[in-house]
């Protein structure tokens, strides 16, 4: 079993810490700055080591436990939660492999346990193949290492990561083409970042583009060489499962906070037409809040269940990927629906830039851009149920 804590156990992120994080979110968003104070506090409580096993210097939490923490963090500061997610994904990937007897990423657990911060350098502009293809060149070196050349976009934690997990295509080896996964260090002269993060939402994540110009990954940091296209390798499963589940957790937190704000607004606002009664007494407002609550209640059990299945090494076979992409799409679309209902309940004040609900509206839109997008997810599910198109 996954050893999940009971509901009575104290969360890693306590209420006081979350309130401090929430209090800073508006300023980070307004100024388009990195969440430095949040980051320092999260490091101090060991949050970046949450998924690292105790033997590697971590806290030894399960994916299910960390998912519940990410829901809470996402409700306080979505951009902070989204950026930290990328480090948690890599530690989760390493944990999944380690739990299944694969030590190829044990070095990552050791380094994360010692305080290194990992960025997720996978996404590329125009690459809708995601893990199954790349526009980055991976050039083999005589010592078994590789040099990566290309541009990675949406590299969250850009000001803070010290190690970057990335990928590219080896087109020159005798067995080419191969998708090569490796890790480069921030100090490498071939690694630079662009100051290009000026977005509608999730601004504090500072997910800047990372330019790789011959960035070197030594042989002992090359973890896979895989054929392009869909691949049953355990690394692909580990990345998909952690990325989709942890991402869904952040957006579930956004929906939870939007619902709380809607309830507060319904009690606060009054209607002259109804003789000064609160909107909490208005049947139409009550219906909208109930609709949002029903939608929100439906996501959390799915999220927890899939995370527990990863922890317990449940074998869903060919249905694993449809379930993972389905969760991601449902969670992000559900959060958009809940935020939309909350806006309709809360009135014109939520349209102002400084409104928390207005910020959540901007933040939640980012969900449509993360892999797997709706088109890719539906294709995955259709293939699982109908088989591929001839």
UniProtKB/TrEMBL annotation:
PANTHER family the UniProt entry points to: ACYL-COA DEHYDROGENASE (PTHR43884), ACYL-COA DEHYDROGENASE YDBM-RELATED (PTHR43884:SF25)
Residue ranges of domain Acyl-CoA dehydrogenase/oxidase C-terminal in the record: 245-366
Domain of life from the UniProt record: Bacteria
Keyword Acetylation: no
Keywords per UniProt: FAD, Flavoprotein, Oxidoreductase
Gene3D superfamilies per the UniProt record, alphabetical: Acyl-CoA dehydrogenase/oxidase, N-terminal domain (1.10.540.10), Butyryl-CoA Dehydrogenase, subunit A, domain 2 (2.40.110.10), Butyryl-CoA Dehydrogenase, subunit A, domain 3 (1.20.140.10)
Lineage, top ranks: Bacteria, Bacillati, Actinomycetota, Actinomycetes, Micrococcales
TM region positions: none
Source organism per UniProt: Orlajensenia leifsoniae
GO molecular function: acyl-CoA dehydrogenase activity; flavin adenine dinucleotide binding
Cofactor dependency: FAD
Cytoplasm found in the keyword field: no
Record family assignment: Belongs to the acyl-CoA dehydrogenase family.
InterPro entries from the UniProt entry: Acyl-CoA_Oxase/DH_mid-dom_sf (IPR046373), AcylCo_DH-like_C (IPR036250), AcylCo_DH/oxidase_C (IPR009075), AcylCoA_DH/ox_N_sf (IPR037069), AcylCoA_DH/oxidase_NM_dom_sf (IPR009100)
UniProt xrefs under Pfam families: Acyl-CoA_dh_1
Record protein name field: Acyl-CoA dehydrogenase
